[in-house]
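Quick log. Single chain, no ligands specified.
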Amino acid sequence: MGYYSMLMIGGRIWIAEALCMAVKKKEVLDEFSSFVPWVESLKQSAEDVWRKPIAEGKWSLREILTHIMHWDKNSLEVMVPRMDEGAVLLFVDIEEHNREAEVVAQSYDCLENLIDDVVETRKKLLELLEERYEDDLKLTIDNEEYTYKRFVDIFIHHDAHHRQQVEAFLKQERQV
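-> predicted structure:
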């Protein structure tokens, strides 16, 4: 009888831990997905200024969105598929990757098409993350320990940085 009780208690603890991990995963991926409605809103708010640099020597909205999409593609095609327990990975050369994104940006002549591609890429990445995300998985990227949460958090902060830049730029443009 005591052995059975211990299993039941252990079972309940395991269920509680699994629920907690599922909640963490959902919170992280929900935050990462919040980028989608924001970027879709730019179709209406940025059509007239999407090619204008946000400041002297800075990218335009076109380059910023392509830059984010290019990182999402790298995560989708290279990083996340290889993120297994104990994996040892490397991020791409950041400067080179950003230059590639700048070139890709020049191929877009329509803001709506760019936003559609950005959203499609992010949604595919979110689907892959939903499939593969494990809270307790540990791997190494550029000689540092990572979890899925840490990996996704980098891009949540990356999105927030560029979102702030874009929103400040659009606010400034509306005041002119």
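The chain has a mean pLDDT of 89.
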